[in-house]
Amino acid sequence: MSENRVVDEMEHLEKLGDYLVVRGNKALNGEITVRGAKNFVSKCMVAALLGKTPSVLKNVPDIRDVQVVSDLLRLHGCKVDYAPKEGIIHIDATNISHGEVADVSTLAGSSRIPILFCGPLLHRLGEAFIPSLGGCDIGGRPIDFHFDALRKFGAVIAKEKNGIHITAPTGLKGTKIRLPYPSVGATEQVLLTAVCASGKTELSNAAVEPEILNEIDVLQKMGALITIDTDRVIHIEGVSDMKGFAHTALTDRIEVASWASAALSTYGDIFISGAKQSHMTTFLNVFRKVGGEFDIRDEGIRFYYPGGKLRSIPLETDVHPGFMTDWQQPFAVALTQVHGLSIVHETVYEQRFDFTKALCRMGASIQLYKECLGSRTCRFEERNFRHSAVIAGPTKLHGANILVPDLRGGFSHIVAAVTAVGESKVYGISLINRGYESFTEKLLALGADIG
Ligand code: EPZ
Known about the structure:
This protein has about 450 residues and is of the alpha+beta class.
């Protein structure tokens, strides 16, 4: 976004009151709780569409994505009952029906979840309408893998004015699919379609993120037959009927890493109740390598600055079990506080460094490069995208007026504002509510000076 448009947008958000004033240079100390993973809960809610009996999901965070998917499910005839305080959602998809095309489009808004409705709606209703997709602006975010996979199952996809109309005139049949890249969404698309397709499906080069393995647990509870093989291969035997499930969502490891990054950037000490070691191994290694420390307990993980010089590192994002791309943005703020040159090579999204512009305005020293600066070349090598960053530190950040560019970039802006000396105004914070439950309350609980 050009500087002029940023200023216009900030003026607009000022009128709407969509901003947060942060008086920084405060160590964040205290305890917070992180509940279920946004990127699991939303998909699990879609899986409930396959069940002919009611489902119940626990540990559901009160975030906007949950509201959006709840409304989309209601639009398709599901009964959805969410108790935010308890974090329990009941979904009854016994009598689902077609949603009004225009309503689906309006409700979906900036969410990318509707693309995952394809398989379940084809199975239950014989057709699906999927509106044009939104989502964070962090790269092209194509959906070609999804469509190629659906076609292999026998789906027919017709582009219409406001989206896509999908049918399966001869039914959905199991097939062999090799993903060009281990895409999270495309793996979920295949799983949600294959579970009830006739015959066997073999999916290779699948994503195996903990959220996906958790979704496989849910589908198994619903009656699916799924085997996880070695080397990213998943076998699915189609079944004719699925029932509802009862499940507890795994903790949001992106939110945990975001708050851990805030603890390090501000030289603070945060205990995150609900954090789980097993989903965070790679993050914990990196956190320790730069000089942060953590204590792992049954109830959660304490992340803290133990004193001494923080050390620079080379870092490369990757699919699981690599360092998550969603951890990269908040963690980059912590890297502005370490001594020396850190290199960050983003290999999942081609344009995930836009947020660094604001950090530079706040005093950070970050240079972007088109070259792959990591230990290996990635898909973006020849494509002219500035997907590597060199961060020189430590730099004293100072307060500024900044605009939230996307969900994780937005959280990184909050972390930068809390770290910076002086006052910042962070515009567009409503976007952060999409994926961070009660983040202003949590900031206050940790001693941030906000208003
Ligand atoms: C999911 O997005 C998450 N979103 C993202 O989190 C996360 O960053 C990403 O997985 C990777 O972990 C949700 O779960 C809702 P992908 P998804 O398909 O599934 C390319 C957040 O902030 N690709 O794994 O959309 C794509 O362009 C969000 O919570 C194709 O080329 O990601 C990207 O380069 C942001 N064609 C790469 O694959 C396709 O058809 C990985 O994308 C699909 C993907």
